[in-house]
Hints:
The chain has helices spanning 3-6, 42-54, 82-91, 112-124, 206-218, 228-236, 284-293, 310-322, 343-362, 402-407, 437-451, 468-487, 509-523, 530-535, and strands at residues 31-40, 61-66, 95-101, 128-132, 145-149, 158-162, 195-196, 198-203, 259-267, 282-283, 299-303, 327-331, 366-372, 378-381, 385-388, 392-396, 410-417, 499-501. By secondary structure, it is α+β, with helices and mostly antiparallel strands. It has an 18-stranded mixed sheet that branches.
Amino acid sequence: MEFSDWLLTTGERGNPATVLDDRRPDGAAWSRGNLVRPLVHGSTYFRELLAGIRAQRRGDLLLFTDWRGDPDERLDGEGTEIGVVLADAARRGVIVKGLLWRSHLDGLQFSETENRHLGEEIEAAGGECLLDMRVRPGGSHHQKLVVLRHPGRPERDVAYVGGIDLCHSRNDDASHRGDPQALPFAKAYGPRPPWHDVQLAVRGPAVGDLEAGFRERWEDPSPLSRSPLTRLRELFHHEDTVADHLPPQLPDPEPCGAHTVQVLRTYPNRLFRGYPFAPDGERSIARGYLRALRRARALVYLEDQYLWSPHVVESFARALADHPDLRLIAVIPTVPEQDGRLTEPMNLVGRIAALDRLRRAGGDRVAVYGLENHAGTPVYVHAKVCVIDDVWAAVGSDNINLRSWTHDSELGCAVLDEEADLRSPRDPAGLGDGARSFARELRLELAREHLDETAPASPDAPDPLCDPVRAFDLFAESAAALDSWHENGRHGPRPPGRLRAYRPPALSPVARTVSMPLYRLLVDPDGRPLKVRLRKSF
């Protein structure tokens, strides 16, 4: 397997201003020798993060970025509120630095108030947390990253990256009973919305890449906000608006595994004055997907919060049209997160158009599912995962929509495993690459949960889920059985599994006509430079 078949080479990121592709003597645009573990569910991630932070001591470094941070969100019971944990670390002498998005839409239940409170708690303890509004109009900083560095103890260095925010509703587990500290949500999800999410724990040289990306944002000399009113309020409240210097970056951790990691990002083409590290923006997430999808032959497995935008799914549709044996499974939320006569159609119209395009290209080779828990409550899918042919896997903060690929800041990792998975079929794509252990195990872990299956007793035992065709059929059979049980009044034992076939509600022609312009303007905007839009590329 050639890494350049699946990953972007130096220069293909399209952003020569970043340091990410200029960090290694060999000029590689990725790092080798990492150990990456998927942390499925917020409770799994939060417990590990809590232990890691509590083990830090004076002089260690804790860096984080987030879309939203709720200081009272508990990582693992009473006394583990994230604000308390971060403040305690700062008081111990850990160098704590954070970047939180300052929402301009707090009146719509976004995150400015909560982020300010978390920042104040950290600042009072001696850390530093900046509220960052350096975004394109209507955009957000959506990256979810924590980096823990340990001078003199590099074996403990780790970075966490993925879809899980340090906020309410995220602390759920495989039972999907929901987080007791819940955000307001669509009524269908109940008072404690069940929540499905994924984060990566990354060890090895890629920790240095992720830290370098944080430093690019931290060291941006631009004002945190361009709004005159915001800047006056900062002066009035004596808010911290200037980033203190970070200590010099430590050498990258030594290789410790067999995983090759490429850091992928989105930054918009910011109007009037771009980011110094991305003057025309960066769309390496989009470019990374496009590169990997050209290799797709057997199965694309997606878990995504949105799956919107006909323009974005065009690359998936093209792969389906070009390769008649290729199948696509997508697991998405059954119901949009917001109720409302206006907001619900705006959330649905882009998805309906995207699914129409995929099904025109792939027909019955495209299968889309929602999830429910064993009580029958829909599970909100917040995960952002893609596995292609059990070779390439990506997990991040980015969704399959134009906003994530062009307009908001996003962060993710593509992972290739140098170790082949020796279970049959070994080469599902038929390209000679062979299935890889990390990508296959990630897909199998997620599939087993959704099917209520357990792993074979022996790691060498045959597993039908390894076969992409059989896995596709098992998803369909499980969803059909559960759908039938519901349609027949829930009589008899509930079938195993949590999958429900996704059937979007119908939108009238009037609703589509009215909603589509609002969707494009407010819900899924385009952050590309005009010259790139005109080329219809990323």
